[in-house]
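RECORD TYPE: inverse folding
INPUT: structure tokens
STRUCTURE:
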């Protein structure tokens, strides 16, 4: 059995969103292309990447979005996320 990766704290590197939009982004009309698969709603705020849909949503809906998309659950990407390491160097 292959062990599941253990999540590491999210540092806001945007890696997940650059790999492709989530269901919420698709529902909001995201149209990634093979040349640019990144979520069009990805924004950079104060040096970290955030979900633009979440940023523009009212306080009442933010918790539901964060829970649905597992914001803050941490990075468990087994895909060689070097973006996370770069962000760690930048913010430390």
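DESIGNED SEQUENCE:
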């Amino acid at each position: 059995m292959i062990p599941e990766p253990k999540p590491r704290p999210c540092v806001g590197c945007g890696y997940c969103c650059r790999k492709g939009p989530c269901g919420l982004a698709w529902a909001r009309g995201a149209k990634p292309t093979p040349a640019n698969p990144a979520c069009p709603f990805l924004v950079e705020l104060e040096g970290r990447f955030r979900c633009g849909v979440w940023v523009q949503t009212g306080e009442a809906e933010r918790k539901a979005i964060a829970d649905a998309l597992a914001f803050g659950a941490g990075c468990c990407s087994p895909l060689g996320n070097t973006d996370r390491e770069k962000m760690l160097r930048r913010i430390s």
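NOTES: The helical segments are 15-19, 23-27, 52-55, 59-68, 82-91.
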